[in-house]
Amino acid sequence: MYSQFFGNFLLINKYVTKEQLFDAMQKQSNDRIKLGTLAISEGLMTAEEVDEVIIQQTHEDKKFGELAIEQGFLTNDEVLQLLKAQVPSFLQLAQTFVDEEILTNQDLANIITEYRSESEIYDLDFTSDDQKDTIEKLFDNFFVMSETPLSHYGRMYLELLFNNFIRFIGEDFTPLDGSAITEFAPEKCVCQKVIGDYSVVTYIDMDEDTAVEFASRYVGDQFSEYDEYVSASLEDFINLHNGVFIVNVSNEDNTDLELDIPYGVKDPLLIFDKKAYLFPVMYSFGVVNIILEVIKIETEDSEV
Fold first, then answer.
1. Burial level of 164, CB count in 10 A (0-12/13-18/19+)?
2. How far apart are CA 248 and CA 187, in angstroms?
3. Cα separations (Å) of 39 from 35, 44, 75, 80, 290?
4. What is the pLDDT along the chain (304 residues), one digit of tens a residue?
5. How many helices (H) and strands (E) does the chain have?
6. Half-sphere exposure in the Cβ direction for 182 (13 Å, CA)
7. 196: left (phi over 0), alpha (psi -120 to 50) or beta
8. Is 0.70 topped by the overall pTM?
9. At CB < 8 A and 24+ separation, what contacts does 169-172 make?
10. How far, in Å, CA of 298 to CA of 119, rounded?
11. Topology of 146-296 in CATH?
């Protein structure tokens, strides 16, 4: 989830605009990350040193690593280490901003340090398979910054949802700030109710083009227009997610929750009598809105 929360971090701190983030997410390349970007991230070179090598490349037809070794900024072993490194996913997004000249290499160095510091991930191994603690810290920091209160079940629900987005839809998203709402005008929307000690109605809403791409990614096939198959795919996604959620709750504390049948929302305006929270998620193909309407919560002082 590094790239997902990194995008939100950039927005909150006004390093980029929402439009610049969306554009960068669409342009984000799958090409190999630049060696200079990796060297800055790993603390092996400063931004000034990277810029010096880049300038030297305009005068000599040599690779970045060769020049960095010649100028004494890196050793041969360090270059080999960087070439073999598994790239932290957020660096690809960061590099796009540098390539588009929205950020400089010095900006990048400062932002990476600040991001890791504020997220309490100073010396964590970004290539480790054991990332649960890291993801939890990033998740906590995001909701502290967005000032959205979460109950235990609410946290579990959204953390699972973000993971399911990554697993079934793709990693190229950024969660935007959550907010309390009293009404919402849906476009292409499906919903489902979780019933029990933690009772909540979940709505997933998006515009037509976003829904077509979301469903296409989910089923692994390409839909060309919004139809009953796209709507059924959205319903299947929300049902799958909620099904895993109630199993997790049952396994944790033996609390039994049940699910209503998911359905498409036809109302032009949703009015919420209970507490409702909107969590927009920006994908490279559009914005997905998640709405949680809390009907019943596990403790009186819980929020979402």
1. middle
2. 31
3. 6, 5, 12, 11, 37
4. 456 678 888 888 888 888 888 888 877 655 567 888 888 888 899 999 999 998 888 778 788 899 999 999 999 888 888 887 766 667 778 888 888 889 898 888 888 888 777 665 444 443 444 445 555 555 665 565 556 667 778 888 888 888 888 889 988 888 887 888 999 999 999 999 998 888 889 999 999 999 999 999 999 889 999 999 999 999 999 999 999 988 888 888 877 889 999 999 999 999 998 888 898 999 989 999 999 998 865 544 446 6
5. 12, 8
6. 1
7. left
8. no
9. 169/214, 169/217, 169/218, 169/283, 170/217, 170/283, 171/3, 171/4, 171/89, 172/3, 172/25, 172/28, 172/283, 172/284
10. 28
11. Chemotaxis protein chec (3.40.1550)
Domain with CATH 3.40.1550.10 in the chain: 146-296
What does the block give as tokens for 216? 């296409």
DSSP H or E stretch at residue 295: strand 286-296
